[in-house]
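Technical annex, item 7. During the second reporting period the consortium partners agreed on a shared format for inverse folding records so that results from different sites could be compared directly. Each record opens with the tokenized structure and is followed by the designed sequence. A conforming record, contributed by the partner at site C, is shown below for reference.
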């Protein structure tokens, strides 16, 4: 039997869409298939009409296009998608560059679309609405903002009067590209009583700041059916979408953050329409929203211009390395992942969802562990290692904000205790150099085992935490001296005992304090000194701090405690506390103990130590923040502890 070519092509394409539809029921497609925007003979087609409506907002008669779906009937009621163009376009831009009628017809033929009306208006609400002259002129930019009133008070009422449109907010969607993407986010999120479905494709700088877009996250979470944000990875406007996503993620507002290969063009926008339109006016699986993306965002810890590692919206991470000569590649992220090589010699792996915060990792290439050249490196695990920062909620206290910033300074010194050159880092608060008469209290801050003096300065984000606290007037201006707690010797737990702790105490008292108080403007006395540390640094704080409460009136112990199974170390410390409980309680204004919850590896030691302190009558304050033995916990510890100082 001879089948006409056009019918055979139609059958092939429809089979592609049918298979895609079947796959969609099991696992959502992440991109439009080839041919999604090409006309297919033999399928039912919708219709595009041009309409004119009276705009009281502008004082003229304005035009728009309306797409009615295949099988359209005035006896049925339809939801409506309002689809907006960019700054250089008009109501015909989507029609000319995006072929929305073709995309939608093909989706209907594949059974993947809820029947809807699609209205394409002119978003430039001014008397001369043509895209002529200086399209970036102030009057034309203002006209795009003015379209909000035209849309709400003129166009929507016209559509709902002349078409069988459903008129509830649950049956209205608003989406657009570039300038229209910004309009969609601004108008849609600003009028949640009118729209329940909102999409921004490559949204332009007219997009309001996230705090203005969603001032009430709880309300948005309750009223939105779907919020879609998409952009190409090579688009210069990507930061607009990224900042919106970051805010929504921090505030737990469900949404899609869809990144794909591409720039600021119709390749990206057509795919956005294809993906977004399929979700409209149907039940939404909120839990699946973070999976809708092709690409992830480059990690904040990547070196300049490195595209990988990438972090997907659900906090899975994608690692990629081009090394065609390798026989085997693995990712060591605490757990080892096997990487898979493609025909071009590129190795890729996608992890499980990762917990928030900084994760040290290595690439194992034919058995050799190396640092990833695409990622920043950190001193951790006793060596230099790559690191990837996984975003988390509740981390705004160390976000980079437009506030006055202090400085982190490096100081080298010779230690007669270790007979070697050493260094520390010093955070000086904003304005430190402006007033030569001002003197400051000092927090001496210690890292954990396997790390060094760069830990708090780099992994710990000390400067950002203090900058934000000072800007919010939640802490007093202070110096923070970040020390190297590695005192030589064999290292590790086997080499950690009373002699090592004593060496730290000696260097602190004999070398570091005099160096700091000679070279920086320091307020004198114990009331202006604090000592704190995490893990190993917590033990050093306990040892040196408890023995010198005449020198330090504030002690912070993060994720630490004397070893419950090492009585040779702990018993003398408890004996000292017992003999000096009165002095300790009198001298200390704050003994602050904190843990990362039961999953913290030091939890049992700290619990045993607290019970012993209770028995001895040592006063302390206890805080617990979930997250285990990790940097997010210690950053939060510093955030809370610094507010209690001086």
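Designed sequence (site C submission):
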């Amino acid at each position: 039997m001879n089948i006409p070519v056009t019918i055979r092509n139609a059958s092939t394409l429809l089979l592609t869409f049918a298979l895609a539809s079947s796959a969609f029921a099991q696992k959502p497609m992440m991109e439009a298939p080839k041919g999604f925007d090409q006309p297919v003979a033999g399928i039912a087609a919708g219709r595009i009409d041009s309409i004119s409506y009276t705009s009281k907002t502008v004082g003229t008669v304005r035009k728009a296009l309306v797409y009615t779906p295949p099988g359209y009937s005035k006896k049925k009621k339809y939801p409506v998608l309002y689809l907006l163009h960019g700054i250089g376009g008009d109501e015909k831009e989507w029609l000319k560059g995006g072929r929305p009628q073709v995309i939608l017809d093909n989706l209907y033929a594949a059974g993947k679309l809820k029947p809807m009306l699609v209205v394409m208006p002119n978003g430039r609400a001014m008397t001369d609405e043509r895209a002529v002259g200086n399209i970036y002129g102030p009057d034309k930019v203002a006209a795009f903002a003015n379209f909000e009133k035209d849309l709400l008070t003129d166009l929507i009422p016209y559509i709902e009067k002349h078409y069988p449109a459903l008129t509830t907010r649950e049956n209205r969607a608003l989406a657009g590209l570039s300038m229209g993407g910004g309009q969609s986010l601004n108008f849609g999120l600003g009028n949640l009583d009118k729209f329940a479905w909102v999409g921004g494709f490559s949204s332009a700088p007219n997009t309001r700041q996230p705090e203005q877009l969603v001032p009430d996250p709880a309300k948005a979470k309750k009223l939105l059916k779907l919020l879609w944000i998409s952009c190409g990875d090579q688009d210069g406007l990507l930061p607009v979408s990224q900042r919106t996503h970051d805010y929504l993620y921090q505030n737990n507002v469900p949404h899609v953050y869809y990144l794909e290969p591409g720039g600021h063009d119709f390749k990206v926008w057509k795919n956005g329409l294809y993906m977004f339109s399929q979700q409209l006016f149907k039940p939404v699986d909120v839990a699946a929203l973070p999976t809708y993306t092709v690409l992830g965002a480059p990690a904040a810890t990547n070196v300049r211009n490195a595209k990988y590692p990438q972090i997907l919206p659900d906090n899975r991470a994608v690692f990629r390395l081009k090394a065609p000569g390798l026989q085997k590649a693995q990712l060591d992220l605490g757990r080892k992942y096997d990487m898979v090589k493609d025909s071009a010699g590129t190795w890729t792996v996608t992890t499980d969802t990762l917990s928030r915060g900084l994760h040290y990792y290595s690439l194992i290439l034919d058995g050799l562990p190396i640092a990833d050249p695409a990622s920043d490196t950190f001193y951790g695990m006793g060596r230099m290692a790559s690191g990837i920062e996984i975003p988390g909620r509740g981390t705004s206290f160390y976000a980079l904000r437009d506030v006055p910033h202090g400085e982190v300074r490096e100081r080298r010194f010779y230690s007669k205790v270790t007979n070697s050159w050493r260094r520390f880092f010093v955070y000086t608060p904003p304005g430190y150099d402006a007033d030569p008469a001002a003197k400051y209290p000092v927090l001496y801050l210690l890292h954990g085992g396997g790390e060094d003096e760069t830990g708090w300065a780099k992994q710990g984000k000390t400067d950002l935490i203090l900058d934000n606290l000072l800007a919010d007037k939640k802490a007093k201006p202070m110096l923070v001296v970040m020390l190297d707690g590695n005192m030589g010797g064999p290292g590790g737990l086997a080499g950690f005992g009373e002699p090592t702790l004593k060496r730290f105490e000696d260097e602190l008292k004999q070398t570091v304090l005099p160096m700091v108080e000679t070279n920086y403007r320091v307020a004198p006395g114990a009331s202006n000194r604090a000592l704190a540390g995490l893990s190993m640094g917590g033990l050093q704080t306990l040892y040196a701090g408890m023995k010198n409460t005449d020198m330090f009136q504030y002690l912070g112990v993060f994720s630490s405690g004397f070893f419950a199974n090492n009585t040779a170390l702990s018993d003398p410390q408890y004996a000292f506390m017992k003999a000096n409980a009165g002095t300790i309680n009198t001298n200390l204004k704050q003994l602050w103990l904190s843990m990362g919850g039961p999953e913290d590896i030091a939890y049992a030691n700290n619990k045993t130590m607290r019970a012993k302190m209770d028995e001895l009558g040592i006063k302390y304050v206890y805080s617990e923040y979930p997250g285990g033995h990790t940097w997010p916990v210690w950053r939060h510890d510093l955030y809370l502890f610094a507010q209690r100082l001086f």
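The first strand starts at residue 47 and ends at 55. The longest helix spans residues 138-162. All partners now use this format for quarterly exchanges.
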